[in-house]
């Protein structure tokens, strides 16, 4: 008997990539049904037209059900993938612009932007879990939605849904890049990686029993700038670690804000305009029956989006394939879709593997509580995820993790309890927010501009 996968938020522009990855792996996945659910039925049908050539080229051996009904999508699902954005890209633009008005980082997942997105998203996720208790009580919930670690902790801590996993493709992309530099298969390279989502570090790069990080650090020491990374070589050598790219916002906070303000638009504002333009173009092409044109427009959009990733914030392009032009083919991957499907294959028992996931700590990192969700390596096998113990991490890393984790826990409490005081405290203590007065202005602006998208705060 095959499995059922439900994707919530399937009218998004990531869905064609997920479907393509599923079709390529369908023989291994043994799927009976794929439910594609979104509240926006019109865009759901538009994405269906966009993916029609994929299905024609590689006909699905399973049923595809597109629906706007959550209950129908969840019924008897084995895996539920959440990839929705409450309020759409327009809400992300607000998330980012409000703090920028006060000289504070405006970014989707880090700082106030992640706070605002979490307040909008967590109540919706918890409502989904309430339905899962009846409709698919044994399902795994695989969360794409950002901020992935915070939301996953909310699911575990508030709802008690132990089969919750947060995924991010950043550590996996980094592993592929380092493996390609070693001319090694990515599955044979182990990263001694620890941290929180978008706040992690690589401490060792193990291949064939040897740590190759010292070799990389020596190469970096000899270079003023490392294509593919937003950090200076001096910073990386000083740390003795390879940071997750999102740590740019902590190590170069002022520079990031100045770069965005100088660019004139945040990433959310940029993507909001591009997305609306693409949806309009896709609608026009579909009306003309030009499905090849739809494919060209979509792939042109993906290329533009990839080439401009983190450019406004860092002031430079740093796609990881820029480490070496010869690496481009080695780094081609399925992104988030590949991580999700690797996880499903491992949980189903067909291909056990080690992965870097957002899961409860379970004492893997000393100094953090068992229920606190961290981003660490784990062994995944049939129906089981086992964290790998991470010993003796540097104190400066643990200190930053604990401060951000305190912010996350207060944000979760604020969303669930509707507490203005806890929301304000959360923002005040975030390392990127310069104090109470600015935190209060940001929060009050969010409440005014997001309106009913935010839970009522009293």
Structure description:
This protein is α/β, with parallel strands linked by helices and 458 residues long. The protein contains 19 helices and 13 strands. The chain has helices at residues 15-29, 41-57, 70-74, 88-100, 112-135, 148-159, 170-181, 213-221, 233-239, 248-251, 253-263, 267-287, 291-307, 311-314, 328-331, 335-348, 395-417, 420-429, 436-450; strands at 3-8, 31-37, 63-67, 79-82, 140-143, 164-166, 189-196, 199-207, 210-211, 242-243, 353-360, 373-381, 384-387. A six-stranded parallel sheet has the order 3-2-1-4-5-6, sandwiched between helices. Strand 7 (189-196) and strand 8 form a beta hairpin. Helix 2 (41-57) crosses helix 13 and helix 18 packs across helix 19 (436-450). The chain is globular.
CATH architecture identity of the domain at 3-167: 3-Layer(aba) Sandwich
- Tell me the name of the CATH homologous superfamily of the domain at 3-167: NAD(P)-binding Rossmann-like Domain
Main beta-sheet strand count, sense and barrel state:
6 strands, parallel
Q: Give the number of helices.
A: 19
| Span between termini | 49 Å
As a percent range, the share of strand residues is: 15-25%
Shape: globular
Cα-based radius of gyration, to the nearest Å: 21 Å
For the biggest β-sheet, the strand order reads 3-2-1-4-5-6
CATH class of the domain at 3-167: Alpha Beta
Q: If you average the pLDDT, what whole number results?
A: 94
Please report the total strand number as a whole number.
13
| CATH-assigned fold name of the domain at 3-167 | Rossmann fold
Helix fraction, binned, reads 40-55%
SS content category: alpha/beta
The low-confidence parts are 321-332
């Amino acid at each position: 008997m095959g499995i059922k996968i439900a994707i919530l938020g399937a009218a998004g522009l990531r869905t064609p990539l997920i479907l393509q990855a599923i079709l390529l792996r369908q023989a291994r996945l043994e799927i009976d049904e794929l439910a594609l659910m979104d509240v926006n039925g019109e865009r759901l049908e538009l994405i269906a037209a966009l993916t029609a050539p994929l299905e024609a080229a590689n006909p699905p051996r399973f049923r595809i059900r597109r629906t706007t009904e959550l209950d129908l999508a969840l019924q008897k699902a084995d895996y539920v993938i959440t990839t929705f954005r409450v309020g759409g890209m327009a809400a992300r633009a607000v998330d980012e612009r409000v703090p920028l008005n006060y000289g504070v980082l405006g970014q989707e997942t880090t700082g106030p932007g992640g706070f605002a997105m979490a307040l909008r998203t967590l109540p919706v996720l918890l409502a989904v879990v309430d339905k899962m208790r009846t409709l698919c009580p044994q399902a795994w919930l695989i969360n794409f939605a950002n901020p992935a670690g915070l939301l996953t902790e909310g699911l575990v801590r508030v709802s008690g849904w132990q089969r919750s996993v947060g995924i991010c493709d950043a550590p996996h992309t980094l592993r592929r890049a380092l493996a390609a530099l070693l001319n090694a298969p990515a599955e044979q390279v182990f990263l001694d990686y620890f941290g929180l989502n978008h706040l992690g570090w690589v401490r060792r790069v193990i291949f064939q029993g040897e740590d190759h990080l010292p070799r990389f650090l020596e190469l970096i020491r000899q270079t003023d700038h490392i294509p593919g990374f937003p950090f200076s070589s001096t910073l990386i050598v000083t740390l003795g670690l390879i940071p997750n790219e999102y740590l740019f916002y902590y190590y170069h906070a002022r520079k990031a804000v100045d770069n965005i303000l100088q660019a004139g638009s945040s990433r959310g504002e940029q993507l909001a305009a591009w997305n609306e333009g693409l949806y309009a173009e896709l609608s026009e092409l579909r009306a003309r029956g030009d499905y090849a044109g739809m494919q060209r427009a979509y792939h042109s959009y993906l290329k533009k989006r990839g080439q401009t990733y983190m450019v406004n914030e860092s002031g430079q392009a740093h796609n990881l394939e820029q480490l070496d032009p010869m690496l481009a083919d080695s780094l081609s991957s399925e992104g988030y879709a590949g991580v999700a499907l690797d996880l499903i294959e491992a949980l189903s028992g067909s291909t056990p593997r080690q992965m870097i996931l957002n899961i409860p700590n379970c004492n893997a990192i000393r100094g953090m509580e068992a229920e606190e969700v961290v981003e660490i390596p784990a062994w995944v096998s049939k129906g089981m995820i086992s964290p790998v113990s991470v010993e003796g991490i540097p104190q400066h890393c643990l200190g930053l993790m604990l401060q951000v984790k305190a912010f996350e826990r207060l944000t979760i409490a604020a969303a669930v309890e509707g507490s203005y005081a806890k929301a304000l405290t959360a923002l005040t203590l975030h390392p990127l927010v310069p104090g109470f007065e600015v935190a209060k202005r940001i929060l009050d602006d969010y409440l005014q501009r997001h309106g009913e998208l935010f839970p009522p705060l009293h």
